[in-house]
Design a protein that fits this description.
mainly alpha, 434 Repressor (Amino-terminal Domain), 8 helices, about 5% strand, 2 domains, two-stranded antiparallel sheet
C-alpha cells in the first residue's frame, strides 16, 4: 500500500466516524487552507489518488480533530516507497518517532492501546454481546 492510500483510508474512516459528508470535510478544510476542497478532491484523497502538502495534512488533522500521525496509520500493511517497501513494524516505529532500540514511552503505548481497544469495541459482534449483557442485567434485576 502506498502512503497516500494509508492516509486516504484514515481520512475516510475519520470522516465517517464524525458523520461528515465529503462536502462538509471539504468546507472544513477551506477554513484552514486558501480555499475549500471540492467533494471530488476529498474523494480522490480518500482513495489515495493524490499527494499531500504539509499544510494540507495539518488542515486535515484540524478538520478531523485528530493528529497528523493518526492520518498516517496503516493496519498491518507494508508501505510502498519509491525505493521499496517498509515493513509494518518499521513504519509503526516511524510514526511513534523513536529509535529502533529505544523503548516506547508510556503515552505512546497508551495511545496504541486505546486505538486497539477502540478497534475491538467497534466490532458488530462485540456490540451485540454488550447489548445481550445489558438485557441480561435488566432481566436479573438489582442484586439484594
Amino acid at each position: 500500500m502506498r502512503v497516500e492510500e494509508a492516509i486516504g483510508r484514515q481520512i475516510a474512516r475519520l470522516r465517517a466516524e464524525r458523520r461528515m459528508s465529503l462536502t462538509e470535510l471539504g468546507e472544513a478544510l477551506g477554513r484552514h487552507l486558501d480555499k475549500p476542497w471540492s467533494r471530488q478532491a476529498v474523494h480522490q484523497a480518500e482513495r489515495g489518488q493524490r499527494s499531500f502538502t504539509a499544510a494540507e495534512l495539518t488542515a486535515l488533522a484540524l478538520a478531523l480533530d485528530t493528529s497528523i500521525p493518526v492520518l498516517f496509520r496503516a493496519e498491518d500493511a507494508r508501505i510502498e516507497l519509491p525505493a521499496g517497501a517498509v515493513s509494518p513494524e518499521d513504519y509503526r516505529g516511524i510514526l511513534l518517532n523513536r529509535e529502533p532500540d529505544m523503548p516506547l514511552d508510556g503515552v505512546e503505548e497508551l495511545i496504541i492501546a486505546l486505538h486497539d481497544i477502540g478497534e475491538v469495541l467497534s466490532r458488530p459482534a462485540l456490540a451485540r454481546l454488550a447489548r445481550i449483557g445489558r438485557v441480561a442485567d435488566q432481566v436479573a434485576g438489582p442484586e439484594s
